[in-house]
Amino acid sequence: MIGPPRVPRERVRRFWKARLAGATIEQAATEVGVSASAGRRWVVESGGMIPCLDEPGGRYLSLAEREEIAVGWAAGLSRAEIARRLGRHRATIGRELTRNHTVRHPRPHERLQQHEQAQQARPEQAQHRRLRYRAVLAQAKAEDRARRPKPRTLATNPELAATVHDWLVEDQWSPEQISQTLHRSFPDRPEMRVSHETIYQGIYQGLYVQGRGELRRELAACLRTGRALRRPNRLPDARRARNDTRIRDKVMISDRPAEVDDRAVPGHWESQ
């Protein structure tokens, strides 16, 4: 069964750039050539927040750079020397070798021989013999870790999801309180910890709630704001003047009495 055609990522980026410039959902959808319902669906799927619009840069290692690392490491070069040749930091090369090295379990008769060689060799030589690095395998590991979407913490841990739900609905705790209490209540169980941002995303995007029925509305109502979607303050049409909310019964300086300009009455003097 063939599903609906996938919307190009560039069109989605243009939609969010238009929203960031102050356009409404309908205006942004018309600008990129999609329906208003599609634009509203993108807003709901993102939880009301504008996603990251940065272009992918040279932050991550490419396959060509990994091939250079493999050649240099096989030749016995140090991390610092490989980093100088690639124009990278040596810590980047160290993390790459640690994360994506190839594990080879030696046979029993090889272990003693390797142990004797490691004792006779210098520390950097022993490390070269322990870590084996292959560029193609390293690239495959990196791409697998970067693949999205990944299983959510609350979706893969029913006990954690139930605890968060109970504290949110029954105790009326905020996501920040839940995150901090989990850290104190389960100090020896890292799987029972979750950040407050993950809880917010789970509520707004419905990641660990089945469907969009009463349960999701109930969880959103338990938040301090009670909103079903986030409202980023950086949208021009969503900004509010601070004076309108903090100063009551304010009088503009243009409406002050005329005798103030004469400075004839004590108390009307202005000081520097």
TrEMBL record:
<feature type="compositionally biased region" description="Low complexity">
    <location>
        <begin position="115"/>
        <end position="124"/>
    </location>
</feature>
<dbReference type="InterPro" id="IPR051917">
    <property type="entry name" value="Transposase-Integrase"/>
</dbReference>
<dbReference type="InterPro" id="IPR025246">
    <property type="entry name" value="IS30-like_HTH"/>
</dbReference>
<feature type="region of interest" description="Disordered">
    <location>
        <begin position="102"/>
        <end position="129"/>
    </location>
</feature>
<dbReference type="InterPro" id="IPR053392">
    <property type="entry name" value="Transposase_IS30-like"/>
</dbReference>
<dbReference type="GO" id="GO:0032196">
    <property type="term" value="P:transposition"/>
</dbReference>
<protein>
    <recommendedName>
        <fullName>Transposase IS30-like HTH domain-containing protein</fullName>
    </recommendedName>
</protein>
<dbReference type="Pfam" id="PF13936">
    <property type="entry name" value="HTH_38"/>
</dbReference>
<feature type="domain" description="Transposase IS30-like HTH">
    <location>
        <begin position="58"/>
        <end position="100"/>
    </location>
</feature>
<dbReference type="GO" id="GO:0004803">
    <property type="term" value="F:transposase activity"/>
</dbReference>
<keyword id="KW-0233">DNA recombination</keyword>
<dbReference type="GO" id="GO:0005829">
    <property type="term" value="C:cytosol"/>
</dbReference>
<dbReference type="GO" id="GO:0006310">
    <property type="term" value="P:DNA recombination"/>
</dbReference>
